[in-house]
Specification:
The complex is a heterodimer.
Chain A (H helix, E strand, L loop, with lengths): L4 E3 L8 H16 L7 E4 L1 H11 L2 H8 L7 H17 L4 H18 L6 E8 L14 E5 L2 H14 L3 H9 L8 E8 L3 E8 L10 E8 L3 H5 L5 E6 L5 E5 L5 E6 L4 E6 L12 H18 L3 E8 L8 E8 L3 H4 L10 H9 L3 E2 L3
Antiparallel strand pairs in A: 1-2, 2-5, 3-4, 3-5, 6-7, 6-12, 7-8, 8-9, 10-11, 12-13
Chain B lengths: L13 H7 L23 H6 L1 E4 L13 H18 L8 E6 L2 E6 L5 H14 L2 H4 L1 H21 L25 H23 L3 H18 L5 H8 L8 H14 L2 H8 L4 H8 L3 H17 L20 H15 L8 H17 L4 H49 L17 H14 L8 H16 L6 E3 L4 E2 L2 H5 L5 H10 L9 E3 L1 E4 L2 E8 L14 E4 L15 E4 L7 H9 L3 E3 L4 H4 L5 E5 L4 E6 L4
Parallel strand pairs in B: 8-9, 9-10, 10-11
Antiparallel strand pairs in B: 1-3, 1-4, 2-3, 6-13, 7-11, 8-12, 12-13
Helix pairs in contact in B: 3-7, 6-7, 6-16, 7-16, 7-17, 8-16, 10-13, 10-14
Chain lengths: ~350, ~625
């Protein structure tokens, strides 16, 4: 059953076809010595085997065949039908046992019974290497118990067929059958603060900056844009914080144990105006970001979290990293071109600085 | 930054301002300066159309008339190197005016398209040669500067006007044909000529080195849009520049003294330099060490205690207590086993590493090549901007102050002036009149009455004092739409933001300002108690962990940096002394604020952000 469930340690970028970019990248990171929360992936083979054993593959593609993306009612109802099929079809005892065993072993390793985990989808589409699938699939947080892990793995599989995902593929003329999905199950970081960072400045493409955005609590508020995050711009070479914006962060995402779900809560007023990261944590994150960028040789878009329970620097986790797609392609082309010192001084000499009053 | 129509986006009209706003206590200030430095009817149209701002960089304090000589000299020299020598196409010169004893300057708007085109052709063949031949040009330059300094030093000033010319000077010796009367007049004229010539030299390659710096900034910003000023400063600033040499010489002398227990023991004591020298003279090792100082005194102790621009600042060579205090603290640090020298080689390799790592971040080979070309040319010629400073503003100025005082002593002797420093109350065109009248009275014989120059000097001192208590408008006239003059951009930092800030500030009294801006010249943030120090003599007042707020620093201030948390200056850009040393020690600094010593008071709690160049007054002292 090894090919259906793989530990993150066993993954590398060569694993993309079977575990998707996101999971493969976590494996790469772990093997590159980056502090990533441990976990395992249910491979695309696991997903296709499920479709086969449940015998629902043909039904699904028939439902989607020739659908008009502009007919939103129809799209929505077919999407719902497909997802219902995936979430209710039987799963083979063999696959189920394999997932349960991996979850139990992960819980053991972290020394926590029913370890809280994040369950995340990771899509693969070999012919669309640079298309950003951001936001097309789902993530479920604070999942504990093996029953819930399996339930959420199915929901991830189903998320491949939201109306939005279906429409996106049709618009990009990408066949539904060719898109496969893998699911990652990863130790949940008990995050004091979390957010995203870029190994270049997303505003202007400056490759000498690492830009970190973060908020108290879980990273969702930052990713979803529900709060003005704190922002730190750091010089990559000198590790100097060249700009810091500490915002009023009125809400944070926390995990509500009673309701068993992530909720937005009001941030305690004594910390809402304080920076969510200490300077040393900022620098540690930047160093991790540099390591990741060096490892991949291209600019990265990274999710991070600072764990409440661990001490510095073990508390700084990378949750996810993917290639930055906007600037990294533009930056391949010269900005200035090859110019001699003479040409450059001639250009400068003709310049004036405008004063706009 | 569009402004709503109808809001004020201009400063007071210069002519109305001069007429209505200068305090009555300054009455008579106009007479202190040459006519062409005053706003007036004859040039009204042109003057009203320009933008004039207070020169906080070179003239933060009211201008004593004779100290204006350097300003007069640079108005010509800076401009000519831009407009006539190197022909920087859209740039013109910087004009001066004095308003109530304060110096205002203005970057004149670009010339016509036709002239720009004409200059561009000339610039094209002149701009690059100095970069390609920098080393030899620098050697030539230093040679001519040093020769001129010696010439100024060697000008003969008669120590007296003798009652009767001694017989041996006339017959039967060949009679030279003139007396001390002429010699005194000639001495001042010659000294003035030297100053003007020295300031001609001052700008030989300075305009170009600023322009190359701006070129590198442009290139770096296109590749790294968010690159900070502090990083660019770190890439370009040299560590081995001659401004640091005086400090290095002191370190060397401290080590020599430390190896001789008897010498070190005397230098460790409290007390004046004079007392210590007396004691050292009494034994051989002490004398040997004193001889070492004597050897390096000229040029390396010819360093001003401040900017070099004002006569009252003094230099190490005539304020030996300052270097002796440093020697004391260096010896104490050696006692504790510390290293006192700056790690020059590691600074240089850190700079090279920084540039190499930035260069590695550039994805395209073509861009990387351009970045490296820009850097190489900028580094080559920017050395001039760093090295000329010691030789002109410090060494040469120190010689000038000494020469002028030598002349002043004669005027005091014959009752023209009350004391030496009175001479600085007369501008460089008036001093010849004082001298002429002094020697005329001597020549006319006995019992000849003299004009009352003493009273005039006294009145002018009062005017300057009143001016110091007045805060003139940071700018006058209409803000320009574009600026092309390299110094205006780089040194004075005239940008939309700066002008806006001045506009905001024109109505706020210093005590109501709670944030000021300057160059983000060394990264980091620090909060603490401010200590305002106006001159190097007050350094002793500073306590460990305070934030230094001062007009400007130079190596004369060096040891203070081991005590402070951050530094804020009125004057200085990204490669000024305070910025370089703060980056070395990892202290935040904001330089070139223009108003720090005016706005911040000792005891205020301030936050210095070297990340974005702001200084926030968190809490006023006593509140």
């Amino acid at each position: 059953m090894g090919e259906y469930v793989l530990d993150f340690h066993q993954l590398s970028k060569a694993s993309v076809p079977i575990v998707g970019g996101k999971n493969a990248s976590l494996g790469e990171l772990i093997n590159a010595g980056i502090n990533v929360p441990p976990g395992f992936a249910v491979t695309t083979q696991g997903y296709t085997r499920f479709l086969e054993e449940a015998g629902i593959g043909e039904k699904i593609f028939a439902l989607l065949d020739g659908i008009d993306v502009n007919d939103t009612d129809l799209l929505d109802s077919h999407s719902a039908a497909v997802r219902e099929l995936i979430e209710s079809a039987p799963i083979s005892p063999e696959l189920e046992a394999s997932i349960n065993a991996s979850y139990a072993s992960l819980s053991d390793r972290c020394g926590v019974r029913d370890l809280p985990v994040a369950v995340r989808s990771s899509a693969t589409a070999e012919d669309l290497p640079t298309a950003s699938f951001a936001g097309q699939q789902d993530t479920y947080l604070w999942v504990r118990t093996s029953g819930d892990v399996i339930k959420n793995i199915r929901r991830c599989w189903a998320s491949l067929f939201t109306s939005r995902a279906i429409a996106y593929r049709i618009k990009n003329e990408f066949p539904h059958e060719k898109v496969l999905i893998s699911v990652g199950v990863q130790k949940m970081v008990n995050s004091k603060a979390a957010g995203v960072m870029f190994t270049l400045d997303p505003l202007n493409g400056d490759p000498s900056r690492v830009v970190i955005e973060g908020n108290w609590g879980l990273g969702e508020t930052v990713v979803a844009g529900h709060v003005n995050p704190d922002k730190f711009v750091v010089d990559k070479i000198l590790l100097e914080i060249s700009n810091r914006t500490v915002s009023h962060k009125h809400i944070e995402c926390i995990f509500d144990c009673d309701r068993g779900e992530v909720v937005e809560a009001e941030t305690p007023s004594d910390i809402s105006d304080l920076p969510c990261l200490e300077n040393r944590e900022i620098i540690e994150l930047v160093q991790l970001a540099k390591k990741i960028e060096d490892h991949y040789g291209s600019p990265q878009d990274i999710e991070w979290a600072i764990d409440k329970d661990l001490s510095f620097p073990q508390n700084a986790f990378i949750v996810q990293s993917r290639p930055e797609t906007v600037w990294s392609q533009r930056l391949q082309k010269p900005v200035i071109g090859r110019k001699s010192g003479y040409e450059l001084i001639m250009e400068r000499a003709m310049k004036t600085t405008r004063i706009n009053m | 930054m569009a402004k709503e129509q109808g809001t004020t986006n201009r400063f007071p009209d210069p002519h109305e301002y001069v007429e209505k706003e200068i305090p009555a206590e300054l009455e008579g200030w106009e007479e202190m300066y040459p006519e062409h430095f005053l706003f007036g009817k004859e040039r009204e149209g042109w003057e009203k159309s320009q933008f004039w701002y207070l020169d906080k960089i070179h003239a933060p304090e009211p201008m004593p008339p004779l100290d204006q000589i350097f300003q007069q000299a640079w108005q010509i020299s800076l401009a000519q190197h831009t407009t006539r020598v190197f022909c920087i196409p859209p740039a013109q010169g910087i004009a001066h005016r004095i308003v109530g004893c304060y110096q205002y300057i203005c970057a004149i708007a670009p010339p016509s398209e036709e002239v720009i085109k004409e200059k561009a052709a000339l610039f094209g063949v002149r701009a690059h040669y100095p970069v390609e031949h920098y080393e030899e040009l620098w050697d030539e330059w230093l040679n001519r500067m040093q020769e001129l300094g010696r010439e100024l030093q060697n000008i003969k000033v008669p120590s007296e006007l003798p009652k009767y010319t001694p017989a041996q000077e006339i017959f039967p010796n060949p009679y030279k044909g003139y007396t001390e009367a002429y010699e005194l007049m000639e001495a001042f004229d010659k000294a003035v000529n030297c100053v003007y010539k020295g300031w001609q030299y001052h700008f030989n390659y300075l305009n170009l080195s600023y322009l190359y710096y701006l070129m590198f900034v442009d290139t770096a910003r296109r590749l790294f849009p968010g690159i900070s000023e502090s990083v660019i400063g770190k890439m370009v600033a040299g560590a081995e520049v001659s401004m640091f040499r005086p400090e290095e010489e002191l370190c060397r002398l401290a080590r020599q003294a430390h190896a001789q227990p008897e010498v070190a023991q005397i230098l460790r004591k409290d007390g004046s330099a004079e007392q210590k020298i007396e004691q050292l003279k009494k034994f051989e090792a002490g004398q040997v060490w004193l001889d070492e100082i004597e050897k390096i005194k000229d040029p390396w102790l010819y360093i001003s205690s401040a900017s070099g621009w004002y006569h009252y600042e003094g230099s190490w060579v005539n304020k030996l207590d300052v270097p002796f205090d440093y020697l004391k603290s260096y010896i104490q640090r050696l006692d504790r086993g510390e290293t006192i020298e700056r790690a020059l080689t590691s600074l240089a390799s850190a700079r090279e590493r920084l540039v190499a790592e930035y260069s590695k971040l550039i994805k395209s080979d073509e861009d990387r090549q351009s970045f490296e070309n820009a850097y190489k040319d900028c580094r080559t010629i920017y050395k001039y901007a760093e090295d000329h400073l010691f030789w002109v503003e410090h060494w040469f100025h120190t010689i000038w102050w000494a020469k002028v005082r030598e002349i002043a002593r004669v005027l005091v002797k014959y009752g023209t002036l009350e004391n030496e420093d009175d001479i600085f109350m007369f501008n460089r065109l008036e001093v010849p009149t004082l001298i002429e009248e002094t020697v005329t009275c001597w020549a006319l014989g006995e019992g000849i009455p003299q004009l009352n120059w003493k009273a005039k000097a006294k009145r002018r001192r009062e005017i300057l004092k009143a001016a110091a208590n007045w805060s003139p408008s940071p700018a006058l006239g209409v803000p320009p739409t574009e600026v092309a003059e390299p110094f205006t951009i780089m040194l004075w930092g005239i940008t939309t933001d700066k002008v806006e800030e001045w506009l905001k500030g024109t109505t706020a009294a210093p005590e109501n300002v709670n944030e000021i801006k300057g160059f983000a010249s060394s990264a980091g943030v620090a909060e603490g108690t401010a200590r305002v120090i106006k001159s190097v003599d007050e350094i002793g007042k500073l306590k460990d962990g305070e934030i230094l707020v001062c007009p400007v620093t130079n190596p004369a201030w060096a040891p203070i940096f081991t005590k402070i948390k951050a530094a804020v200056t009125d004057i200085g850009g990204l490669t000024c002394h305070a910025a370089i040393v703060c980056r070395e020690y990892g202290l935040p600094s904001v330089t070139g604020t223009g108003v720090a010593t005016l706005t911040i008071k000792t005891g205020d709690t301030i936050r210095v952000s070297g990340d974005d160049g702001t200084v926030t007054i968190v809490k006023r002292a006593g509140q």
